[in-house]
């Protein structure tokens, strides 16, 4: 995740990431970061889980986005990611309420990595 | 942070870390993880902020602990860290309500690293 280099604080609080809005390059608001997934051993943040779709919080789904694909935009007060709404709709995701959260095993992570092939930011 | 190697999921959700209990080696409950601090550029979790002291959530203070000092104990359902309550009381910390959160600049981080010199776990 890229952020302003002149930011006075090199750290961001986990609970500040959660709930932050996510936009695409066109400025469309895709949703918010529901949570993010951290590698238990290395402590590396690997995926930001986007809450997308639905209406007033009902019926939305969760889409893990590669952490490195998100860039914080201080002007927007949110993260920007270079994907369209249509790309999100076709991406690996799961029902936010259904309890079918992925296990992030190697196969699932390879699917995510293969789906999100971003150009350099 | 070290966790069970046979865990089926290599990832942990950020909002599951938050609120998790922290114990010391004697089994004393030191407090809970209030949040954790992630390096904005690298995405590396660097510090778990321990909410410690006070009574019924009043008057407690926040103490950033090096992320690598925490080990998850599935039996306890919490993290274990090799420090005493007295060590925490003398550690760099700040008022949880006072708005005097550290900026995590180099000097502050060096203070933390110097204070917490853990033996290998």
TrEMBL record, chains A, B:
InterPro entries: PRC-brl_dom, PRC_barrel-like_sf
Source superkingdom: Bacteria
Pfam families hit by this protein: PRC
Protein name in the entry: PRC-barrel domain-containing protein
Domain PRC-barrel: 11-87
Organism: Sphingomonas tagetis
